[in-house]
Amino acid sequence: MPEKIMPDQSSTIIPFKATCYNPAVIKDIRDVVCPPYDVINKTQQEYFQKKSPYNFSNVLLTRGGDYEEIGKRFKQWIQEAVLVDDDKESLYLYEQRFISQGSRFTRFGFLSLLRMDKDDVIFPHEYTLSAPKEDRKKIIKEVEANLSPIFVIVPKSLKIFKRVYVAYRAKEAFLDFDDFEGNHNRVWKIQDKKTLDAICKEIDKNKLVIADGHHRFEVSYDYYKNNKEKFDDLNYLLAYVTDEQLGLLILPTHRVVDVPLSDEDFFKKLDTHFLILKVSQGELTKKLKEKSIFSFGVYRAGSFYYAKLKRASSLKNIPDIAIYKKLDTYLFNHLVLSLFSVKEPIAFTHDLNEAVKLTHGNKVAFILRPIPLKNVFSVANKGYRLPQKSTYFYPKLLSGIVMRRFTRADK
């Protein structure tokens, strides 16, 4: 096990000795990394789990609900030195370079341990679901580790982040590879005490918003409360911390809904609040970029439609929380879904082409706009939460870059 970490108990983030894949055993990191558990579908799960017996999906996701098997496999990888502990406490600078809709982006942040029990510092922005939390509770119990980082943001630009990134990006990286989506990933170990202190002290001055990993945060906090006597520093969890930057890209999350109505009845109901125009896919994309209080797209029976709110007065009938009235997902739930007797479950996707493919029978794709980052910050900082599946930060952080194993207090 890693040596005990003795953090400054006032620190929001601390460096740590990560558990990583052993380069002497794993010759190509691309064979073993994978997306986070919650975005891997069944087909992708089979692909990743077959790619290598050591692909990280083999400990992130069960086969037929066998959680004990995951715990045994994780411990076996450690015994066989497939996974090894770093020899020095570090922050891990993680850069992702990627292309979206023809534009190039770069995003970077620091993999660290984040303190969970510090008042008024960490703010969630979305509601969670019970099923994923139950799944992650069983996983954390078996592996006694944080397998994947949560994603948190300082809602402003920090000079120290940019300064450290500029200094390290010209150096040889600890990891350097293109992933399965073609995104370029690089990781550097930061071990210089002066640099570590500067980063941690700057974070201490700021609040943080959870961008992704709400379920893992809640599960880790619950595990800490129930097991804090068993492990050292269990009030910290693995986290990627970034600041406000151009590479913080949010994609929309579209809804595919089963609406058992004829075309005539469906559009008649939508006409209650919305002006509806039949458009091409290209026209819809352009119109959704126009400024409006609330608009969205519809794909039904082979055609695209653009729907725009007719009257601002329609907002008077929804619950009066002013900040929510700027959120498309909230307005969608109250002004659109409420019009129909919806058959569950609703399918969610950030990919427009996938949304179209999922429509058959009575299913309708509702195509939403992305929520601006400033709106996410506004909601979280005021203590409110967005509806489920409101944001999709792209690209996802890869799982398998670093892990954090818990250190037993009696070791």
List keywords for this structure.
411 residues; alpha+beta; nine-stranded mixed β-sheet; 12 helices; 23 strands; 28% helix; 27% strand
Report on the architecture of this protein.
With 411 residues, the protein is α+β, with helices and mostly antiparallel strands. It is 28% helix and 27% strand. It has two domains: 13-250 and 394-408, no CATH class; 253-369, no CATH class. It has helices at residues 42-51, 57-60, 67-79, 130-143, 159-168, 193-204, 214-227, 263-270, 281-287, 328-336, 352-357, 373-381; strands spanning 13-14, 19-21, 83-85, 91-100, 103-115, 122-123, 145-146, 150-154, 175-178, 184-190, 208-212, 231-232, 236-243, 249-251, 254-258, 274-279, 295-300, 303-309, 343-349, 363-367, 392-394, 404-405, 407-408. The strands form six sheets. Strands 1, 4, 5, 6, 8, 9, 10, 11 and 13 form a nine-stranded mixed sheet that branches. A six-stranded antiparallel sheet has the order 16-18-17-20-15-19. α3 (67-79) runs parallel beside α4 and α4 (130-143) crosses α7 (214-227). The relative contact order is 0.18.
How would you sum up this structure in a few lines?
This protein has twelve helices and 23 strands.
- What share of residues are in beta strands? 25-35%
- Biggest sheet layout: 9 strands, mixed
Number of domains: 2
Instruction: Note the overall shape.
Output: globular
Report the average pLDDT across residues. Answer: 91
